[in-house]
Amino acid sequence: MSKGIIIAIDGFSSTGKSTIAKLLAEKYNYIYVDTGAMYRAVTLYAKQNDFVGKDFFDEEKLISNLKNISLSFHFNADLGFAEMFLNGVNVEKEIRTLEVSQLVSKVSAISEVRRKLVAEQQIMGEDNGIVMDGRDIGTVVFPKAELKLFMTASADKRATRRYKELIDRGDKVDFKDILFNVEERDRIDSTREDSPLMKAEDAIEFDNSDMGIKEQFDRICALVDRRI
Ligand code: DC
Predict the structure, then answer these.
(1) In whole angstroms, how far apart are CA 119 and each of 47, 62, 112?
(2) Whose CA is nearest to atom 14 of ligand 1?
(3) The domain that contains 199 carries what CATH number?
(4) Closest CA to 153 of 195, 183, 193, 116
(5) From the alpha carbon of 39, which atom of ligand 1 is closest?
(6) According to the model, what pLDDT value does residue 22 have?
(7) Domain containing 114: what range?
(8) Does residue 82 belong to any structural domain of this protein?
(9) Strand pairing of 89-90 and 81-86?
(10) To test ligand 1's pocket by mutation, which of 19, 22, 35, 39 has the most ligand atoms within 8 angstroms of CB?
């Protein structure tokens, strides 16, 4: 039996990358890795230890403490996906707050952070049969991935999706803060020096501003089937 392929999904924040990635992993029985969760968990660690906040960032302290950060995914059968654990503690809910979203781009611009996480991600892909989503998967983590997708959508559509997600889980947030965060993160993620968010030359672009999940999924499955 074939070992499966590597599917790399990159793109702007809240473009539905993880929704598509989870559906693909389920259909093809692949492992799904949400690399954004890993950057968020490192950010949560930095926040808990007062290395980073709204107006300060002690990069050196974070860098010298990276060895104390252990990240792991544990599959939750009820939810149907793997949850993020930071030093043995389930942080799946805490890493999705607006506060973490407001700090994560600063933390993920640090080269030492990226080197640690990219190395861990590459090990996860050794067995293939993997769907990984993030910002640099097709360009840096798996430049030889068999299928690369690049997701985009209008900022307004993306902020609306994120706003709904946060409201549905009971967070009190303002739409304008979410819109600002989505645009600001894209700006920082795309302009940072180390591995900026960009479309790999051989990635297929999907603008899903006006495309439902089913249509996207069907189109992407046809691409996967061709690669397999
Ligand atoms: O996918 P997400 O929105 O949960 O990602 C959170 C942040 O993590 C994103 O704004 C940038 C950073 N990130 C990154 O730099 N590289 C990745 N491969 C994944 C995420």
Answers:
(1) 23, 18, 11
(2) 135
(3) 3.40.50.300
(4) 183
(5) 8
(6) 95
(7) 6-227
(8) yes
(9) antiparallel
(10) 39
How far, in Å, is the centroid of ligand 1 from the Cα of 123? 19
Cα of 109 from ligand 1 centre, angstroms? 10
Number of helices (H) and strands (E), helices first, in the chain? 8, 8
What confidence tens digit (pLDDT) does each residue in 149-166 have? Answer: 999 999 999 999 999 999
For 35-146, list the strands marked E by DSSP: 71-76, 81-86, 89-90, 130-134
Q: Is residue 180 part of a domain?
A: yes
Residue nearest to atom 3 of ligand 1 (CA): 13
Domain membership flag for residue 1: no
The answer on pLDDT for 142 being more than 70 is: yes
Tokens 């769907």 sit on residue: 131
Q: How many domains does the chain have?
A: 1
State the Cα–Cα distance between residues 149 and 147, nearest whole angstrom.
7
